[in-house]
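User: Predict the complex.
Assistant: Input components as received:
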Amino acid sequence: MTHPESLPPRPARKERLWTWMLVPGTAWMSVFFVSALLLLIALSFGTTDALGNPRFGGTLDNVIGVFTPTYLRVIIRSLMYAVAASVICLVIAYPVAYAIARHGGRYKNALVALLVVPFFANYLVRMYGWQTLLSDESMLMTWLRHLGVSANFHILDTGAAVIGGLVYGYVVFMILPIYASLERMDGALIEAGRDLYGSSLRTFFTVTVPASRAGAYAGLALVFLPAMGDFISSQLLGGPDNLMVGNLIQEKFFAGQNWPLGAALTMALMVLLLICMFAYLRQTARDAKEARR
Amino acid sequence: MTTLVAAERELAAPQAPPAGRRKGSGMNRKPRFAIAVTVAFFVLLYLPIFAVVLFSFNTKKSLTVFEGWSLRWYQAFFNDAELTESLQTSLVVAAAAMVGSVVIGVLLAFGLVRARSRLGGAANVIMLIPLITPEIVTGVASLMLFKGVGLQPSLTTLMLAQTTFSISYVTVILRARVAELNPEVEQAAMDLGATRFQALRLVTLPVMWPAIMSAAILIFTIVFDDFVLAFFTSGVDPQPLSVRIYSAIRFGIQPSINAVGTLMLVGSLVLIAIALLIPRLFGRRGNSFDLFGG
Amino acid sequence: MRTPDVSRRRFLLGSAGVAALLAVPSCAYMTPKAQQAATKPVEPKIDGDLVYFNWADYVDPSVFEGFQNEYGVKVVQSNFDSMESMQAKLAAGNQYDIIFPSAQWVQKLVAANQLHTIDPSTLKNAPLIFDHYAYFADPWYDAKSGHSIPFSMYKTGIAWRKDKLGETLTGGWSDLWNETSKGRTFVLDDRDEVLGMLSLLLGYELNTAGDRELGNIVDRFRSLRPYLRGFSSDDYNNLLSGDAWMHQTWSGDMAALLWQAEDASIYGFEAPSQGTPINSDTYAIPINARHPGTALLFIDYMLRPENVEKNINYIGYPMPVHGTEGVYQELVADYPECTVTVADLARDLYFSNDSIAKTQARDAAYTEMKVGL
């Protein structure tokens, strides 16, 4: 170990260097992101002029407009879809991550790579692939009809299809953090758990899950938040009753020519997400405190 | 909580059986359920990709019946000047975002790990927010910003927006690596006479290089494939590839999409392969999949 | 018979959704070029090669060859994939000799003094249009057709599966409320088209934006929802894939259906009696064209009946040129109601450029319809 005398005292100069390194990034993010968000909030109170240009203003019309049944219904539906997708992702992610992390052996890394590769094929193209696979005259549906499923049954244009699309698009974000947690976990804990409880299942729920909950929380955040704002799944796989708030926002900005209303909707989405995040952050803070005990 | 504690106590108990592999029950018993789920999952994961790749070679336009093998959709893609222009646009934007975000991200990563000022806390929060923001929100907000200062959506605005979003990813990835660095090595270099910058350049950066390259390639792929942000912040001329694919899907020019999708997949695979090989080429110890494991 | 990417034209309608953010605001940003509006009409004479700017694959290649051979000039082609894209390039200062804007865009371009004046009497073949299709002599989008010549036309109607729903329907928009097709019916994912369809059904003006009318439209749509499988602009593919047994459809896509279906006879197309919205593309010469004379000669060349017929067979759209109607009718013999007749035009069912207030009112109604309370 180094002797205290040989360690030069840390000059204040070095401290400032690291602080200076923060400046470009912080400045950039402040200019291009934070100010953009603030502008978004400001524009929610604006109006549109005769030429279609958004103007700043002080009206509450748009914000109030968001709280009409039309929009609330879509917002609540988006919430439900996102929650459903998150839960399903969780249920899928654990077995998959567990199998790879603890039983993947030599092929662990290859399996993780296999997991991630589809993610790098264009999201739209993959969704489009599902649209094709699930269309009424596809091989899958024809086969199902052979098995006796009613001719009127269709998978596309339903809420289930949209939720399925969300799961498909985001499940990787759930698997990776949980995998990371499980991989780092001390296997001896599981063994000990089995000694204590005998059954694998109980061990899983009482030892494995709590030990990997940091990964699970990260995964939930990484799935739930983007899923709330998703509009592709609904547009490609859903029907008229499966509209999500992202679709409405998109429409307001393009065909609808009503940017202030679109901004208000976006803001409502952000606020909702912040509320959910707040609950999540409180929970993780609590857990961190307990862990330190 | 208490169960965990109990398990840990059991572990520490002096009568614990000798550590080592136990045959039969316990760790090595294969969980059939989990493996079955995993297999089913991988099948479903690859099903649409398989369909896309397969039908990209279809002779007919049909997407439900596979007729025969043909390269016509690939030919159509390469003959389509507009599509190749879009491809070029996507590549340029991805490259620009990669360079910009890596440069800023490296600085930010060092700053976050080593700075002791309050700016660090603020920087951390500002950096993390985009990660939890749905892309539609970032897209809309960016659009408002550009329009607000009078910038028409164009290649430039797209590059700016993509760089912004990418900085967060890069920083999060590199921060872990920077935290692993041993500052005493730099100290040693400086004790031997190097300036701070020389120490960083000659000692720290080479060690960081594989991680930086991996992050760069990851960002390139993410930005190249990105749709939502591009949708809101790109101009019409030429549109990036992902936005064109979106139009095509909505309004029906399908078959070339499959070819495009397959090409993008192959291209991304090549890039990822490079990203994974780099750590090995540089002889870095440790798992190259640390990138994914976090 | 070729299988062209007929659906290119859908970008016109599609990109209204994808990139329409430029549509109206761009008028504010659009700096009119410093040139005066040309008061002198263009003279038909060769003044250089033709710089052509259009949708991809919109003219039979042999027509280009013929023009090049006859006049000894080259045709230099560029393509756009949306009206907004075309406008962006023009606003950026690119110089084209001939462009192909849709009716709504001609109005915008004329208002901004971006088009050369054209005197139809200088075109030998212009009478084939204007003497027989009086509508185009003085259309709503271009007074006295002083800046544009009509190119192609199409309408919105209903396409259906004859083998599932029968050989004929009642011939009105209420056909969409078909019991057998319940759960397999689609409307277009386009605000103007859906509102327009209901306006026609209820006897309102096509572009109506009155509170009472919009309220009734929303109510009537509510009764359609139980039958609806989705909103989609991918009409012919939905029909081909079997997801749709009934679809609000653009007539131009029927040619695509014809060329791609295993058995085209199982599909039918009708133009409902209450009226079908019409749209048209035009030839126009931008104000900053370097070779406007060549462009005018090209228009005249394209209007020669033999060339019109070649183009009709190439892209599957009808053109308002006397004597060529038969060619199109033959093409779509399975779907006779696709033809756009003089009578259709006379009803003046075009989607107009709306004021912001109207657009927002219509959009609010459309949102309500889409969300479906």
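Strands of chain C lie at 50-54, 75-79, 98-99, 148-161, 185-187, 228-231, 246-250, 267-270, 278-284.
Let me know if you want any component modeled separately.
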